[in-house]
């Protein structure tokens, strides 16, 4: 990959969204529709109907040889175990458990960052995107007084 000046740059990370059932397809579809991301940025992989060896082969093939982040829905279960195994040699791969849509959107726009920096950024983005709606709390999170 080269930048506009023709300088060789590091390859962009590939994202693999590995989930139970069909959740991965919906997440990848939403990211593509919202961001206009290239199809090669994120790949959906479901554990549905896959044995451990089949799932491992699918994820390894999807990750390829370049930098990759495997996003799972949970930190336990077959998807997480597969991600941990695929990332056992941390050189070019990382796993993020508990992926959410804001995190995946941030990934497609910043996947050229160095892998460690990208993972830190994505974890922060994923955490800060989680909020609740409570009519008794002000926007800064503090409880408002009853009636006022």
Structure description:
By secondary structure, the chain is an alpha/beta fold. The chain has a domain at 14-115: Phosphotransferase system, mannose-type IIA component (Rossmann fold, 3-Layer(aba) Sandwich). It is 39% helix and 14% strand. It is built from 5 helices and 4 strands; from the N terminus they run E-H-E-H-E-H-E-H-H. The chain has helices at residues 23-35, 52-63, 78-86, 101-110, 115-128; strands at residues 14-19, 42-46, 68-72, 93-97. Strands 2-1-3-4 form a 4-stranded parallel sheet, with helices on both faces. Helix 1 links the parallel strand 1 and strand 2 (42-46).
Order of helices and strands: EHEHEHEHH
State the helical fraction.
Answer: 25-40%
- Number of DSSP helical runs: 5
Total number of strands = 4
Note the gap between the termini.
57 Å
Class of secondary structure makeup: alpha/beta
* CATH architecture label of the domain at 14-115: 3-Layer(aba) Sandwich
The percent range for strand residues is: 5-15%
Overall shape: it is globular
Please give the largest β-sheet: 4 strands, parallel
Uncertain spans: 1-7
Averaged pLDDT, please? Answer: 89
List the helices and strands and how they pair.
Layout: E1 14-19, H1 23-35, E2 42-46, H2 52-63, E3 68-72, H3 78-86, E4 93-97, H4 101-110, H5 115-128
Parallel strand pairs: 1-2, 1-3, 3-4
Descriptive keywords:
Rossmann fold, 148 residues, 5 helices, alpha/beta, globular
Please give a quick description of this structure:
By secondary structure, the protein is an alpha/beta fold.
